[in-house]
Amino acid sequence: MSEIRRIGIVGGTGPLGRGLAARLSYNYEVLIGSREETRAEGVAEEVSRLTGRKVRGATNLEAARACDSAILALPDLAAGGLTQEMEKELGGKLVISPIVPMKLKDGRFAYSPSDGSAAESIASLLPGSRVAAAFHTVPAPKLLAIGEKLEYTVPVAAERRETFQEVAAVVASIEELKPLYAGPLSSARTIEALTPLLLNLGRLNGKKNLSIKIV
Q1: What pLDDT, on the 0 to 100 scale, is given for residue 81?
Q2: Whole-prediction pTM value?
Q3: Neighbours of 11 (CB within 10 A)
């Protein structure tokens, strides 16, 4: 287990990737990855202007190669093939999955993993990496609201406590986020399912950007 200094956010041009890049850039060197390097560079410039911190853009492969730890801010459908392409670059590294397989049907979101959970699928594709599940319940718009404290609990699933401790340090580097160990990676099935639940609660009750706080 080595010190994490540089975090690569694979598929980081979407709202969650931007938000995580913004918040984490205060404590880490951050690379935003995309299939198109020019798009990643453009988003990195936007995040840098927002935070006053230097964030770099790169291809997904370069972000995976250059980082100490990667966050896969990817849609579920894109994750499998892209992750396989980066197996060598991510070998021996901490890989955090906030991926949630879900579908919108009849106005409601439903958790829809093909097998197990997204995090377990990622771990099967990256046998040489330390894969953990985290950040599923942190709303992207809140991450981008720099200056707003995020008094949320972040459940983390990982096979080993040592891996959880690595993830917990990354989570806790964002002010007021509280990581809690949720057990082995199979617990990601429960954690990932919280996202569609929160989205449905918001839709049904006229609320936005819901999260959780365990007291």
Answers
A1: 74
A2: 0.95
A3: 23
